[in-house]
Structures are given as C-alpha cells and as structure tokens.
Amino acid sequence: MALNQPALPEQSEAEIRIPAEWLMPGLDLEAVREAQRSDSRATLTGDFLTISGVELTVERRWLREAFWRQARQAVQHGYVYRSSAVAMTVRADRRER
Fold first, then answer.
1. CA-to-CA distance for 62 and 25, rounded, in angstroms?
2. Cα–Cα 20 to 30 A to 16, which of 5, 31, 70, 88?
3. What is the pTM of this model?
C-alpha cells in the first residue's frame, strides 16, 4: 500500500533557465537576486542563469535586446503571470495545490 507523499518542492516552484548567450555582458548576479522574493534562488553558470521560486522577476535590462521577445521560451516550470516592456513575472503553477 503506497502512502500519500507530499509534492516535491520543484513541482510547486516556477523556474526559468536563460541561456548565457542571451544575457548582457557583465550581468551582476546580486542585481538579479535583489529583484527576487526572499524565498527565490538564482544561480549563474557559464551556460545558464537559473532562477527558481514561487514568483520570479526577469528584467529586460538583463537580456540582449534580440532575445527579450524569446524570454518566455526560457520558462521551465510555471507560467508568465505578467509581461511588460521592461519586466516579466513568472509564477508557480498553483493547480497542484
């Protein structure tokens, strides 16, 4: 008999993975972290900027102009809640709760 197990945290979090070639040169990871809620995480590697949490913010100034329109394609989990000319907000999918 299987016991009901709580959902994994990854399932209730939004995640965006932005390829490094889309990012502005010299992007400051601390600036990215400051734009997020306190319960979000942001990491920057040679391949991706990854941000995860309940609600995420992506600012247009972080991306090269040619890639801003493609930013939605970088959403791995969750959905685009709001998008404007200067920022995009991604939220976790709450249907699982």
1. 9
2. 5
3. 0.83
CA distance 76 to 27: 21
Which residue, chain included where needed, has tokens 């685009």?
80
pLDDT over 70 (residue 97) = no
Domains of the chain, CATH where assigned: 9-96 (3.90.56)
Q: How many CA atoms lie within 13 A of 20 on its CB side?
A: 8
The pLDDT, as a whole number, for residue 45 is: 97
Task: Find the largest Cα–Cα distance for the chain.
Answer: 54
The first and second tokens of residue 49, run together, are 């900027």
Residue type, 72: R
From the list 62, 71, 5, the residue with the least C-alpha distance to 30 is: 62
pLDDT tens per residue, range 35-76:
999 999 999 999 999 999 999 999 999 999 999 999 999 999
